[in-house]
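In this supplementary section we document a worked example of the pipeline. Step one takes a protein sequence of length 422 as its only input; no multiple sequence alignment statistics are reported here. Step two produces a three-dimensional model, which step three serialises into structure tokens for compact storage. The input and output of this example are shown verbatim.
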Amino acid sequence: MPKLKIMSWNINNFGYKKTYDDFYRYISSIIYLYDADIVGIIEIVSSQGVSIAENLVKILNSIVNPPGLYYWQMVVSDQFLKGGHYEQYIILYKCNINILQMNHYGLVGIINDHDFHNVFNSLNYPPGDPRIHNFYNELINNNYIDDGYRVPSTTWSLLNNGYTVKLPHITNDPNIERDISNILLQAKPYYFSEYWDDRTPFRVDFTLMNNVPLSVYLFHAPAPGYNAHFGNSQLGQISELATLDNVVLMGDFNIKQNELNKQLNLWYFNTTTGETELYQANGNNCLIKIFQTLTGPNAYGLSFLSYKKELDNTPTSLVVGPIAPNVTDPNKVYSSTYDNFFIKKTQLGNSIPYRIDTISFLTNQTYFLFSTQYAVNIYNNWLTAHNQNPFLLPIPTNLSEAFNVYRYPISDHVPILLCVDY
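The serialised model returned by step three reads:
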């Protein structure tokens, strides 16, 4: 059966300070060595999403072996506000015998730039036309969207009941107004920004060989703590997760395994409201569906979604602080089970998840010499910037050195990989 390899990687604060050749080549080398077909990268900062994706695609396309076997393409999310600054998602994908085409992409529940492409064409607005900026201002000023490009629930309800958008400064054409209403209706009010550090998922749809559909959701939950629990619970409000045939939901969920297991039990069925409810420590009940919606068994007549959590008790984030030179157990450098895959396999076959142990293989001079050298160069650049001079050999020779090479200048998470038959 054909095998598809999907990678997810939280690269800490991937922005201006990491946009240089050695860093791009290191990331590309890991993608190449593990032969990934789809790669999701999160925590892109400093408005660098398009530039970062373009540089990675350029390098990846330069090392295709044999040349012409496939080529890489990219999609980059719009920016979304998180904790006072903006982030983006990137998904890179191979155009090969597995992936026939990319069909659609966009942030979930948010109006994306390309959603109004046909509307702008019908109005003869070229890209960059200042009237496009005015168009979005009209939507915000008339409360059709908020400043985070989300559709408020009251507006969505009005539109759903047949209310027509009225934009006198743009058009009085009822056909265009109906098109705008339909686009706004597609951005259902999921409220992924109810808290200051919430982040909405990024969805990309593909067609695989034999016309098998695949939807990939890339998600970065709020920082660990209560908000992470609440942010993740909002995933249950995405109606498409129930209706789509083949889905991979992946990313950094910022919840430890034991906390996730507890969270699965923090719900009960309210016979009055007919909803699953999350019981909070303060005694208030919140009408919201949590991870149990995705993975749990059916209960009280409710149909839960048949998603499988792939990585079990596998920590993927790194400990904070130095590692003793005599440590030889790779598990000693990992701390929390934050990164994972949730998969719905209507037409997909066997799936095998992996934690890519980028820490240990930095000491392997036989198979990973070129990626190791890039990593060492990155570390030395970081040391110079921080005016620090600890002893480091040209290539790490023990786990402690490899941890320092990776943890501080590269990322506090390692990538994860899912191999799927279909």
